[in-house]
Amino acid sequence: MSIIEWLIHGTFAVPGGELRVPEVVGNLFGLASAVLGMRRVVWAWPVGLVGNVLLFTVFATGELSGAVTEPLWGQAGRQVFFAAVSIYGWWRWSQLRRQGGSADGRAITPRWATGRERLLLVGLGVVGYAVAYAVLTRIGSWGPTTEAWILAGSMLATYGMARGWVEFWLVWILVDVVGVTTLVQAGYYPTAAMYLVYGGFVILGFVVWLKASRAAAVPKPDEPTVETVA
Questions:
Q1: What distance in Å separates the CA atoms of residue 93 and residue 98, rounded to the nearest whole number?
Q2: Helical H runs in 39-143?
Q3: The whole model's pTM is what?
Q4: What is 21-51 written as a DSSP string?
């Protein structure tokens, strides 16, 4: 078996069953991407892209470690969107990095979204959920109610990360809460376990980005404050 075949169709023997190689390895790439994203490193995007491809093969083919043997199209579609936004995020962070990046040497400077941007996120979330639910119900996906939120919420969070908005971590928390419950019910235990690990990194990532956004908002000694300019 070649390395490519092993990555797509290989299995790990475990007590009481087996685990799919792409499900395990894909989630490890996803975890590495989350860590790099927390540190605002450009490599977060291509690393995550590899994980997206591997996990897409898992969710779209129905070759799963769990009891569900039909595709989870919401999860599969989520990987497609991740891949598309990863390309955008890779390009955006690379551009910002070439322009000098943030003051602390990272690729991007975290900030809170503006009021208008938050309204846009809420609107996109509502529309995204409605569209995802309709499509997933139509194609017969397993658990369309929760899958629709996982898909729509993931879209918002990934786009928010590409834009450098601190809020994206909060959206991820809501996605993880629903995701763990759904994946356990479906029998995707490796992915559910990784969601729990993600949850810890999401909380840590939120704290790290919050501190970075506050540090970036403090005027440097040689920079005029808003009151001085006025």
A1: 9
A2: 44-61, 73-98, 115-139
A3: 0.78
A4: HHHHHHHHHHHHHHHHHHTT-TTHHHHHHHH
Contacts of 155 (CB under 8 A, 6+ apart): 78, 81, 85, 124, 128
* Tokens read off for 130: 């409605």
Report residue 29 as tokens: 């790439």
Given this model, what pLDDT does residue 93 score? 93
Q: What value, to the nearest 5°, has the Cα angle with vertex 210 and ends 160 and 42?
A: 50
Beta bridge partners of 12: 19
Summarize pLDDT for 137-185 with one digit per residue, the tens. Answer: 887 777 788 888 988 998 899 899 999 999 999 999 999 888 888 878 8
CB 118 within 8 A of CB 163: no
The Cα 153–Cα 168 span in angstroms is 9
- Which is higher by pLDDT, 60 or 91? 91
Convert the pLDDT of each residue in 183-192 to its tens digit: 788 777 777 8
With H, G, I as helix, E, B as strand and everything else as coil, classify residue 200: helix
How far is residue 113's CA from residue 183's CA, in Å, rounded to a whole number? 31
Q: How far apart are CA 103 and CA 101, in angstroms?
A: 7
